[in-house]
Amino acid sequence: MSTTTNLTLIAAQPRLSDILTGWRLLDPGMQAADAAVADWFAFGVKLLSLITVDPSHPEHTEACALAAEFSHAAIVMRGGENGEGTR
């Protein structure tokens, strides 16, 4: 008698806390140029897209809100939206 095992591999969903932890490790620091800080926020938006592209993800709403804040911060740091480009 043979036994067959069917394995279904399920990719783990990314966790918001893990994404933010990794992103924070790349913090350019307080002395960084505004462009570097803007790039850091923009990279945060890209990392959050691991969640924001999936409306069924349990942290989708929170990730979308953070992505919007990060995007706004990047724009302001680059001198857009009446930002001076300074902290």
Structural overview:
This protein has helices at 16-25, 34-52, 60-77. The termini are far apart. Helix 1 runs antiparallel to helix 2 and helix 2 runs antiparallel to helix 3 (60-77). It contains three helices and no strands.
What's the helix and strand layout?
Blueprint: H1 16-25, H2 34-52, H3 60-77
Helix pairs in contact: 1-2, 2-3
Seen as an oligomer or otherwise, the chain set is single chain
Which structural class best describes the helix and strand composition? mainly alpha
Radius of gyration: 18 Å
Order of helices and strands: HHH
Largest sheet: none
Our measurement of the CA-to-CA distance between the termini, rounded to an integer number of angstroms, reads 71 Å
Tell me the β content: under 5%
Helix content: 40-55%
What is the molecular shape?
Answer: elongated
The overall average pLDDT, rounded, is: 88
Please tally the β strands and state the result. 0
**Stretches where pLDDT falls below 50 for ≥5 residues?**
none
Specify the number of helices: 3
Summary of the model, kept short:
With 87 residues, this protein is mainly alpha-helical. It is built from three helices and no strands. It has helices spanning 16-25, 34-52, 60-77.
Which descriptors would you attach to this protein?
87 residues, elongated
